[in-house]
Predict the 3D structure of the following.
Amino acid sequence: MAWYWIVAIVICALFIVAFIVYITNADMKIIEIIYNKLLAFHDSKDVSEKI
């Protein structure tokens, strides 16, 4: 198999994955999961507030 067929298959596969992520809004779902974990982590820290 020629190298350009491998490159074409990889590009098509990446396009299909990107299209599925776009259609299902999966990128924002992943960001929401990360954001919630970061909120829980920062809320559990002890912080001394000095005013």
Notes: The helical segments are 3-24, 26-43. The chain has two helices and no strands. The mean pLDDT is 91.
